[in-house]
Specification:
single chain; about 250 residues; alpha/beta; 2 domains; 4-stranded parallel β-sheet; about 45% helix; oxidoreductase activity; L-lactate dehydrogenase complex protein LldE; Cys_rich_dom
Length: about 250
């Protein structure tokens, strides 16, 4: 299989270590992975702000750049979800067809569903509190959203449990939003910060050493609250844990 590594712009700019860990994981499992150097923002910020017309050229470029790959993998549930769910509608407006939406995956989703990983080589002897991001749960089905009243499952937790030494815990309200929500945090900062404080306190109550999750945007939001309040808990992307030792 030929895989295109899609690195969202904020990961590229702020969390390059997450992109590197993603590449290490994919190559460890023998995947033929390439990083198209001309990739840009997928257009999610523009579309979420109400300017879908501004996102369309980016969607078309993404489509052309990644069309050749069998799979497109990203360490970000929100960006992968945007390409999967919104590109078809955006491009249909212009009489185009998205040739990438059906083959884009969050990295954890790809490891669990496509590669069916059942063993990881690293060790991470720490207690981590898992944050379930809204996009990951409700768009990509990385886990069971509590409002569905279905048998609980978590692909991210299942992968974490393959890493030697990890103790995975979760806050009481396992899928409560952290309050980031992209443009929501800019348009409604007071509500966003209050939600973030509540979510960070929930994770802190587990007495975990780290908060982890599959979306750097949520970790960035909560990390800012942790830093401002000088809390002892640390942030780490789940991919960095899965790639420990590589």
């Amino acid at each position: 299989m030929k895989v295109g590594l899609f690195v969202p712009c904020y990961v590229n700019a702020v969390y390059p270590e997450v992109a590197l860990a993603s590449y290490k994981l994919l190559t460890h499992f023998g995947v033929d992975v390439d990083y198209p150097v001309d990739q840009t923002c997928c257009g999610q910020p523009m579309a979420n702000a109400g300017f879908e017309g501004k996102a369309l050229p980016l969607a078309k470029q993404f489509n052309d750049l990644f069309e050749e790959f069998d799979y497109i993998v990203a360490p970000s549930g929100s960006c992968a979800g945007f390409v999967k769910d919104t590109y078809p509608r955006l491009m249909e407006k212009e009489g185009c067809t998205s040739k990438v939406s059906g083959k884009v995956y969050d990295l954890c989703e790809f490891l669990y569903d496509i590669l069916k990983v059942d063993k990881l080589p690293g060790k991470f002897p720490h207690k981590v509190s898992l944050h379930n991001s809204c996009h990951g749960l409700r768009e990509l089905k990385l886990g069971s959203a509590s409002e569905l009243n279905i048998k609980p499952y978590s692909k991210v937790k299942a992968l974490l449990n393959l890493v030697e030494g990890v103790k995975v815990v979760e806050p009481i309200r396992v899928d409560e939003c952290c309050g980031f929500g992209g443009m929501f945090s800019i348009e409604e900062p007071a509500i966003s910060i209050r939600m973030g404080n509540d979510r960070v306190n929930g994770h802190s109550d587990t007495e975990a050493e780290y908060i982890t999750g599959a979306d750097s945007s949520c970790l960035m939001h909560m990390g800012g609250i942790v830093d401002k309040n000088k809390m002892p808990i640390k942030m780490i992307h789940v991919v960095e844990i899965l790639a420990a030792g590589l």
